[in-house]
Amino acid sequence: LELARPYFAVQGLSWIDADNFLSFHIRGIVICWSIDEKKDCSTFFIQCILNMGTAGVPLSYALDKTGNRLAVGDSRGNIALFDIGSECEDEVRQPLSIVRLAHQKEHVTDLVFAKQGNILYSCGNDGCIHECSVSASGELQTSVSLPAASLSGITNIWRRVDSDTKEERIIVGGFFGNTFVLLDLFNGYEFFSVDTGGRQRRQDFFVQFTDDGSIGLLSFGIAVCSSRKDGRNEVMVWDHCAEKAPNEGTLSYPIHGETINDVCWCPTSSLDRLILLSGSDDCTARLSLYHKGNLSFLQELAPLETGVRAV
User: Fold this and answer.
1) Which residues face 154 on adjacent strands?
2) DSSP label at 257?
3) What is the model's pLDDT at position 255?
4) Residue of 100, 99, 107, 135 lying closest to 119 (CA atoms)
5) Is the torsion defined by CA of 268, 271, 273, 275 positive or negative?
6) Please, where are the H alpha helices in 9-98?
7) Alpha-carbon distances of 103 from 72, 78, 113, 300, rounded to whole Å
8) pLDDT tens per residue, range 282-299
9) Is the sign of the CA dihedral 53, 57, 62, 63 positive or negative?
C-alpha cells in the first residue's frame, strides 16, 4: 500500500470483476487492485499503477481481456491505452498510446472494445462517438468521430451483434436536455426515455439486453439523486421489465443529510431485489433495498473520517 500513498485522493472506483477493481485519482492516475482470495476481503494489493500523463481525472475504462489491454478516458477528453499483462520493471506504467482531445475538452464517459480488440469506441459529453483502430503494437489511430443524433451528452455505449443480419450495432445512453434516452444508433430506435429533472444530477442505471442474440431490451432501472428544499436528499427510482408494465410516477425517500456524491446498483441472489449503495458528504455509506417498487433503508456501513466520494 506504500506505492499508493501519494495517490490517496480517490476520485472514483470501478469493479472489473469480483476480485479486481480500479481506483481513479487526480492527474491521470489509475491504480489496479486485487483482492487476496486466500484471505478475507479486507486484504488487497496493487497489481499496477497507470499514469496517463494528463491533467485530467480518469472517469471510464474498457478492458480487452484477450490482449490484456486497458483503455482509460479522462475528464479532459483524452483516451490512453495500457498494457497490463506483461511484466514491467517500473512502478508506474506509461501508456502504449494516447489520443489527446478525442472528445474536445469534454468528459470521456464510456469506452468499449470491438472486433476482437482491434476497434475502440468511446463516447463523451460532447455528444459524439469516437472510433479508434488499435494496432498489434497498441497504437491508437482515430478513424472517425460522429455526433449521436438527438443527444447532447452521451454517458454509456454498448456494442451488440444482430444474430439474424450479423450486423454490428452501437447502442448509447445519454441526455437530450434533462431527458435520459437509450438509443440504437443503427436505426434511431428509442428503447426508453426518462425525464430526470436535471442533467447534472448524480445517477446510476442498469440495462439488461436479451440474451438470444437479438437487439432487444429485457429490463432497465435508473436511480437519480436530487436535493429537496428542506436541505435533505432523495433518490428517485424508475424501473421496467418486459413482463410487466412500467411503474407509474416516481419513488423517492430521504436517504442522507448531506450531498450524495455517488450511487450504484448492487445485484443480489434474488432477481426481484436490488441493493442501492449510496455515499454522501455526511461521512456515511448506506445500503437501501429496492423490492417490488419500494425503496427502504437496509444498513449503514461504518462511518468514515471524511465524506464518501465514490462507491
Assistant:
1) 174
2) S
3) 81
4) 135
5) positive
6) none
7) 13, 7, 17, 39
8) 999 999 998 887 888 899
9) positive
**Spatial distance between the Cα atoms of 10 and 26, rounded to a whole number of angstroms:** 8
Please report the pLDDT score of residue 11 as a whole number.
Answer: 87
Number of other CB atoms surrounding residue 159 within 10 Å: 14
Q: Over the stretch 16-39, which tens digit does the pLDDT of each residue have?
A: 888 889 999 989 999 999 887 665
Grid coordinates given for 115: 472486433
Task: Tell me 65's DSSP state.
Answer: T
Q: How far apart are CA 235 and CA 197, in angstroms?
A: 12
Mean pLDDT of the residues in the chain? 83
Report the pLDDT value the prediction gives residue 245, as an integer from 0 to 100: 46
Cα gap 113→16, rounded to integer Å: 15
Terminal CA-CA length for the chain: 20
Instruction: Output the DSSP codes for 223-245.
Output: EEEEE-TTS-EEEEEEEEETTSP
Q: Inform me whether the pLDDT recorded for 246 exceeds 50.
A: no
- List of residues 6+ apart from 295 with CB closer than 8 A: 235, 237, 251, 252, 253, 276, 288, 289
Give the CA diameter of the chain: 57
What number is the average pLDDT over the span 231-257? 64
Mean per-residue pLDDT, 105-119: 92
Stretch (H or E) spanning 218: strand 217-227
DSSP H/E element including 302? none
pLDDT score for 157:
93
Residues shown for the chain? 311
